[in-house]
Amino acid sequence: MNKLDSVIGFFAPEAALRRVQARRALEIAAAYEAAKPSRLRKNPGDNRSGDLVAEAGVETLRGQARHLEQNHDFAFGILTTLVNNIVGPRGIDVEFQPKTWAGDIHEGLASQMNEAHKEWARRPECTRQFSWGKSQRLLCNTWLRDGETLLRHLQGTVPGLKHRTPVPYTIECLEPDFLPVDYNDSNKRIVQGIEKSAWGEAKAFWLYDEHPGASLNWRMNRRRHTAENIEHLKFVRRLHQSRGVSIFAAVMNRLNDIKDYEENERVAAKIASAMVGFIQKGSPDTYEHDDAWDSEGKRILDIRAGAIYDDLRPGESVGTIQSNRPSGLLTPFLETMHRMAAAGTMASFSSISKNYNGTYSSQRQELVEQWANYETLSLEFCEEIVEPVTRRWVQMGLLADAFQVPADVDPATLMHVDFITPVMPWINPAHEASADETLLENVLVSPQQTIRRRGKKPDDVIKQTAAWQRKLEENGITTPSKRTAVPAENTEQDPES
Q1: Cα separation of 53 and 47, whole Å?
Q2: Does residue 281 contact residue 287 with C-beta atoms inside 8 Å?
Q3: What distances in angstroms separate CA 415 from CA 126, 338, 392, one per listed residue?
Q4: Which residues pair with 44 in a beta bridge?
Q5: 478: which residues sit within 8 A by CB, 6+ positions away?
Q6: Which of 96, 143, 303, 332 lies most in the core, judged by the most C-beta atoms within 10 Å?
Q7: DSSP letter for each residue of 349-364
């Protein structure tokens, strides 16, 4: 006890004891060095809920992310790389595999459903502008850039809408601007435009009828849409977070700094490329006016390749202003910044920076480790967007008799679907193909799995192969027999043999 505690203890022992206990508790709580603020470390923290943190900056981050995509080639490249590896160039494809009661795939129904879905996927969204693959790419790009995206199911009879295929089902893709962040009502349990149950489950979404950024009206009409007709894909890192935040949030300042630095270096290099010369003059009393002056009183000096100046005044010399631009530190600095940006956006450094230096082993290691990020995002997109759309398409197809289910098909297997997501590309085709061949020979994978890993459909491959074989037979062409590969270490002959 200190002197003050002793004095207080003389008059109020209990109060003095509480002071000592409180001081001791503070000392224990500050046992972690990271919890102790100092002159050099302020220990910033934010213990607000995920909704409060997002509400304060989600729209600002969304606008900055869109500006970066529009005006910064590096940010545009990051988004393109992510989308290409999450949904691929043609989107996440589906292959239906309904089964008979015996457990075998019913080829007839599977082919019928695949063909019907392919026709629906040509123009499935309400504006009839994009295919299902293009819609997926736009939804994925919006999800990553803006932090969230929405999809609305339009099924059955919808006023003013005509479904394009016999399956009465169409989708509507929406940007997050349609869902107001500032709409809260505690009486209705509405948080940032989302109406929730007491357990936090989304019951409805209050959406604007039109994009708020496209209307000149001060009053926007909001409409309630039940949650069963809305898919809300959001990029979150907090439990109980209602709205998503841009994937650029953690690297926004870094991307802006990179953009400013590159622009400054580019302008400096442009200025440095324009040669500036000067004449270092001699004594003033030796300087006389003659015909080598223009009408504005400026000295005329003919500068050209191979020129020899034999009319300089005594003591004069010609020089040029030297520039150190572009800086030799530009490349290593940007490489470091690109690595940090790649880490903060779950993208591959080599892909976004177009820097493929390194050995096969190093590139393979980077690809293997990085592919876990792509697969994680791809699986999330598939579960939240592709699978619900596919399930709704099957349900509406059954109601509309768009495909007939034979009696020997188990109805519970109609949603047995293989989702064909992007596959990890090959770095060394010979090694990769040899590995696949070894796995097939030892029955560790099936041919169907190997084909799907390459992003293809087994049925399409079989049909195309059969058609090719028929053409070869019709033209009397025989394919060469397979030649056994010679291991690399045995290609050189032993000098003693």
Answers
A1: 9
A2: yes
A3: 24, 42, 10
A4: none
A5: 472
A6: 143
A7: HHHHHT---S-HHHHH
pTM confidence score = 0.77
Range of the domain at 134: 50-247+346-427
SS3 155: strand
Claim to verify: residue 73 and residue 200 sit in the same structural domain:
yes
278 phi/psi in degrees, rounded to 5: -145, 155
Give CA–CA dist 220/59, Å, rounded. Answer: 17
Which tokens hold the place of 282? 């001699």
* Nearest in space to 292 (alpha carbons), one of 321, 275, 316: 316
192: left (phi over 0), alpha (psi -120 to 50) or beta: left
pLDDT confidence tier of residue 43, bands split at 50, 70 and 90 = confident
Q: Are residues 135 and 85 in the same domain?
A: yes
Query: How many secondary structure helices (H) and strands (E) does the chain include?
Result: 14, 11
Quick check: is 165 in a domain? Answer: yes
pLDDT (tens digit, 9 = 90+) per residue, 8-34?
777 788 888 888 888 777 666 666 667
Number of domains in the chain: 3
Question: Looking at the domain assignment, is residue 223 inside a domain?
Answer: yes
Q: How many CB atoms lie within 10 A of CB 412?
A: 9
The Cα–Cα gap between 478 and 462 comes to 19
Whether the predicted pLDDT of 466 surpasses 70: yes
- Return the exposure string of 474-483: e unless at least 16 CB atoms fall within 10 Å of the residue's CB, then b: eeeeeeeeee
Question: How far, in Å, CA of 377 to CA of 281, rounded?
Answer: 68
Q: Residue 246: CA atoms inside 13 Å, Cβ hemisphere, count?
A: 26
